[in-house]
Amino acid sequence: MVDVPELTLNDGHKIPQFGLGVWQVPNAVVADAVTTALDVGYRSVDTAALYRNEQGVGLALASSPVPRSDLFITTKLLGNSNSYDNAMRGFDESMDRLKLDYLDLYLIHWPGGSDFAGSWKAFTEIQASGRVRSIGVSNFEIPHLRRIIDETGVVPAVNQIRLHPGEPETQLRAFHAEHGILTEAYSPLAVGALIKDRTAAQIAHKYGRTPAQVLLRWNVQQGNRVIPKSITPSRIRENLNIFDFTLSDEDMDTLTNL
C-alpha cells in the first residue's frame, strides 16, 4: 500500500496530495474505476456535477470497506450556476447524488457569470453549517481570486487548475503561495499528450519509470496536489507509485520547459 503524503490546507484540514480524477468518465463505468483506486490505496476522489457521474461515485463509496473518515471526497458546483441560491441548491443536489452526510471539499467549478462571488458567499455559509469541511475554487485566475477574497474576507483553501510541465502557471502559483491557497493540478499529463514527449521519455528511462510517473512527480515535488484520471486498472496503480523517487533539480527544470 502506497503511503500518500497529506498536505495541510489554510483552514487546518488535511488533504491527500494525490487523488483520482473522474472527468470524462461515464457514470456507467466510474464506480469500477473508483473501486479499483480505493483497492490499491487511493483515498481521494474528485468529481463534479458537470461530469454527471456523482451517482456512480457515490455507489462505489457506499460499497467500499474503506471507512468514510479515511476518505477525502471533492465535488464542484456547475460553472453556469453561479449565484447564492444556485450554490445552495447545487450543493444539496450533489450531496443527494453522492449519498454523503458531509463533503470534504466543495469547489466553484468555473468563475462563469457575474455572480460567482454570490456563490462564494453561499459556500462560506455551507462550510459554517458543517456540511462541508473545506471550500475552494477551480479555474480561477488572479482577478477572480482577488474579488471573492475582497468581498468575503474568506480565502479559498484550493484552486484547482490545469497544470503540467510546459504550462506551469508560475504567476498564478506565486499568488497562491502568497495567500496560502493550495494549487491542485488537473490534466497533469496534458490529456495524455506529454506522455509521448521525447524528453519526458528520456528522463523516465533515466529513473526506470514511465513518462506518466515522472510528469506526475514533477507536480508533487513542487508541493502541488495532483488528480490524474484513468479507468485502466494498471494505469491507476502506476500513477500512484510516484512517492519513492525524487527528480533532480536539473530534470525538474527540463520538464518545466517542455
Categorize the overall geometry: globular
Main sheet properties: 8 strands, parallel
Relative helix content: 40-55%
**Helix and strand succession?**
EEEHEHEHEHEHEHEHHEHH
Number of strands: 10
Overall pLDDT score: 96
Please list the strands of the largest sheet in the order they lie side by side: 3-4-5-6-7-8-9-10
How would you classify the helix and strand content by structural class?
alpha/beta
Provide the low-confidence segments as ranges.
none
Strand portion, in percent? 15-25%
Cα separation of the termini: 32 Å
* Number of helices, where a helix is a run of at least 4 consecutive DSSP H or I residues: 10
What's the Cα radius of gyration? 18 Å
Structure description:
It is a single chain. With 258 residues, this protein is an alpha/beta fold. 43% of the residues lie in helices and 16% in strands. It has ten helices and ten strands. It has an eight-stranded parallel beta sheet. Helix 4 packs across helix 5 and helix 7 packs across helix 8. The model has no long low-confidence stretch (mean pLDDT 96).
